[in-house]
Design brief:
Oligomer: single chain
Number of helices: 10
Strand content: under 5%
């Protein structure tokens, strides 16, 4: 490749940024890395759009297979992202804070048409994930909150309007919150994954323990925030 291959990139990284190859250092200790990996694995599972897909499994065999394959998918999704950032440092690529390293690497080491194709695919994937999250959130809003607690006799048309309003509110709220940027992308993402991961135990308990109550689940979630 134009970058010289993985051996060349790794050697350059070891020569120029040896700290990138050290396990841990400061905040990024082995304990932090392991806990973050566990948090991501469980947190992604509790994403609304992912969680709903698990519940529509046609039988127990499919459900067990999904949970068994899920950690592999998480590795395939996240490890390349970390590797790209590390390799970019070895190549001497300068990426402004808050910017995406992938377009910079593509612009420097690939033809323009290939870079455009990859970026377009990434944008399509992000849009697909975003609309899945919004639709799942509106589904939870209408089926788990609005119909049970506000209007049990709501018509399907009324429920659809509430769902559309929910999508608009969620999208606008997300945009407004993103403008404040309370921390780095890693900090924000780690906080989000941690919040979702805390839902894993309540969901598992609700599925397998008949004596689970709504109050118990709410108390468990609230207690985990302290």
């Amino acid at each position: 490749t134009s970058a010289g291959g993985l051996d060349t990139v790794s050697t350059s990284l070891a020569d120029t940024k040896p700290e990138f190859l050290a396990l841990g250092g400061g905040l990024y200790s082995p304990q932090w890395m392991i806990s973050t990996a566990v948090t991501i694995a469980f947190g992604v599972t509790m994403f609304p759009q992912i969680n709903q897909r698990f519940f529509v499994a046609k039988d127990a065999r499919v459900l067990k297979r999904s949970f068994a394959l899920w950690p592999i998918l998480v590795v395939l999704l996240f490890v390349p992202a970390f590797l790209l950032g590390t390799w970019a440092a070895g190549l001497g690529v300068s990426v402004p804070e808050g910017s995406n390293v992938v377009p910079v690497l593509l612009n420097a080491y690939t033809p323009g048409w290939f870079a455009a194709l990859v970026v377009a695919g990434a944008m399509a994937a992000m849009m697909s994930s975003s609309d899945s999250m919004l639709l799942s959130g509106s589904s939870y809003l209408t089926r788990d909150l609005y119909r049970p607690f506000v209007n049990p006799d709501a018509s399907e048309e009324r429920e659809a309007w509430v769902a559309r309003l929910g999508v608009a509110v969620f999208a606008l709220g997300t945009f407004v919150v993103s403008l404040f940027r309370p921390g780095t992308l890693i900090t924000v993402g780690d906080t989000a994954f941690g919040g979702f991961a805390q839902l894993t135990l309540p969901v598992m308990v609700a599925l397998y323990w008949p004596k689970t109550t709504r109050q118990g689940i709410l108390a468990g979630i609230a207690g985990s925030q302290l």
